[in-house]
Amino acid sequence: MKLVRAGRSAGSPEAPAVDPLADLVRRACAHDQSATRALVVAVGPAMLRALRKVLGPAAGDSEDVLQDAVEGFIRALPTFRGACTVLHFACRVAVLSGLAWRRQWSFRARFSVDAPAAAEDAPGAQPSPAEALATSRQRDALVALLDDLPPGQAEVLVLHCGLGFSVQEVAASVGCPIETVRSRLRLSKQSLRARIGANQNLAATLEVEQP
Amino acid sequence: MIAHRSDCPDDLLAASVARPLSELERRALDLHVSNCADCATACTAVALFQQIPGAEPGDDALVARVAGRLAASGGAAFAARRGRWLAVAAASLLLCTAAGAVAMGLWSRRSKVTTQPMLHVPDAVPASSARTRTPPSPPEDLVAPRPPAPEVVDPATAPRAAVKLARNRPARTVPSATEVPGIAPPDAVTAADLFRRANAARGNRQLAEAAELYRALQLRFPASPEAIVSSISLGKVLLALGDHEPALAAFDRYTGQVAPAPLMEEALVGKGRALRLLGRAAAERETWLDLLARFPGSAYEALAKQRLAELPR
Fold first, then answer.
1. B15 and A99: CB-CB below 8 Å?
2. CA-CA distances (angstroms) from residue A168 to A18, A77, A159, B32?
3. In chain B, which end has fewer C-beta atoms inside a 10 angstrom radius, N or C?
4. Sign of dihedral through CA atoms B269, B274, B276, B280?
5. What residues of B are in contact with residue A133 (Cβ under 8 Å)?
């Protein structure tokens, strides 16, 4: 188990010696518009996925939030030192942006009415309406729990559990020592568990065993 | 079950997000989770996060729109930020001056009214009333994006770059007066309102309604930037509705305009797709060649080349 823990997650490659997006970043920092555009096109889908994990499945404002996140990413580029991949950096900005939006705009209320999610529109293997509703409630409950966590813990939790960043990748993206990330991760898990344990309805919604 | 163990396989949990675990890994994780309550909660979180769809149809177009707007605004984002800081500094200075003036006024009035010698410091404006009512902003670190406070850009006072940026962006989803029944007359609707409503309908997959709203926008505000950009959105919606010919016409409207067209690549891609669905191979080929010639290194280069390889010569 320790071997597994020490290893990095597959599917999210280690920062390569030469980041394929590094050149675009350099040119974008020099206000090269075509490079900026190409960079946004390259990282935009990943940022959008990260935003959806934070905002929930019915992120009706995703274009607005993405616009803000992308602007934040472009503004932050001069501070990027290559400690992680450009893609991981962009995802972290997207997560921070999504969390900021949630906190400032009472997203819980605004997203209470779900728009149909793409997966639910896909033909075949559709859950029953009752199953879909239950799943939707669970997802809403989870993303709402993020609002109650301290920002640093929520960020680490989304990057790790939502986007599949390894601890090492989270540490590189956030700019913290690995042990700090482990500590935040542990605290966020404990906070989640405590909040779920203190709320019978929530525990029932999430189908989590109460202690 | 214990609450937390020091050897939690965090990276195995994260790996389960990115790929299916092997039998051995799955068993190891299950074994740990059965003994660790925190990781059991984390597993639930992972499972729920995975149910949130990451990618959706139309994401590429959405990203392209954002990229196009950003490119069209040039370095406005950087300048806007600088301008915003200047504006905040100026506002703070004004606020302090105003608070000081009020405090001085109170002081002098009290001095005149009372005949007693002043024994204490007069009440100044309470600190709370001198504060501006801004939403709580998150702790910003170096990479934190701009807080999404609603921006009301006054062209008369805001820095030019900020105005430009605001104009290049679609309407934010800040409730406007026109949304409040009985307050604003129905004809007070703006191009930005229509564009936002159309985008919202499209986001909710009410495609027919979205198409109607885009058409209404183009009819009522034909010269507005929103109407011009909406040609592409309308084309995509019509493609999704199976109305290929009108979709092609919408893309053609955008590609045929004289004004600078920051979303020309997206328009050409839409046109190519419409022509493909209409079975017009020669015109489709020309469109992809046009795209490659106009935008070397385009993000759609691979798509264009693939279609060119598939199309009969």
1. no
2. 18, 21, 11, 21
3. C
4. negative
5. none
Q: How far is B2 from chain A (nearest CA, A)?
A: 10
Q: pTM above the 0.80 mark?
A: no
Q: What is the residue type of A150?
A: P
**All residues at 6 or more sequence positions from A140 whose CB lies less than 8 Å from its CB, including other chains:** A56, A57, A108, A111, A112, A114
Taking only residues 168 to 207 of chain A, the set having a beta carbon closer than 8 angstroms to any beta carbon of chain B reads 168, 182, 185-186, 189-190, 192-193, 196, 206-207
Are A161 and B60 in contact (CB < 8 Å)?
A: no
d(CA B25, CA B183): 61
Task: Round the average pLDDT of chain A to a whole number and report it.
Answer: 75
Residues of chain B by 3-state class (helix, strand, coil), percent to 5: 65, 0, 35
Amino acid type, B307: R
Query: What are the backbone dihedrals phi and psi of residue B258, each rounded to the nearest 5 degrees, phi first?
Result: -85, -35
Say which residue, A2 or B307, is predicted with more confidence.
B307
Tell me the two tokens of residue A102: 């949630």
User: What is the distance in angstroms between the Cα of B28 and the nearest Cα belonging to chain A?
Assistant: 7
Q: Which residues pair with B2 in a beta bridge?
A: B36
Residue with tokens 């669905």: B277
DSSP, residue by residue, A72-85: HHHHHGGG--SSS-
Average of per-residue pLDDT across B171-196: 53
Task: Give the pLDDT confidence of A138-169 residue by residue, as tens digits.
Answer: 677 777 788 888 888 999 999 998 898 999 99
State how far the alpha carbon of B98 is from the alpha carbons of B94, B157, B195, in Å: 6, 19, 40
Dihedral of the alpha carbons of B222, B233, A52, A174, in degrees to the nearest 10: -70
From B106's Cα to the closest Cα of chain A, the distance in A is: 36
User: For the segment B114-159, what is each residue's pLDDT rounded down to a tens digit?
Assistant: 333 333 333 333 333 333 333 333 333 433 344 333 333 333 333 3
Note whether B203 contacts A: Cβ–Cβ < 8 A. yes
Which residues 73-92 of A have a C-beta within 8 angstroms of B? 73-76, 79-80, 89, 92
Contact call for A79 and B70, based on CB within 8 A: no
Identify the CA nearest to A15 among candidates A169, A162, A166: A169
Question: CA angle B264-B269-B273, nearest 5°?
Answer: 145
Q: What is the pLDDT of residue B29?
A: 87
What was the pLDDT predicted at A61? 62
What are the CA-CA distances from residue A41 to residues A97, A139, A173, B78, B300 (Å)? 18, 28, 20, 19, 10
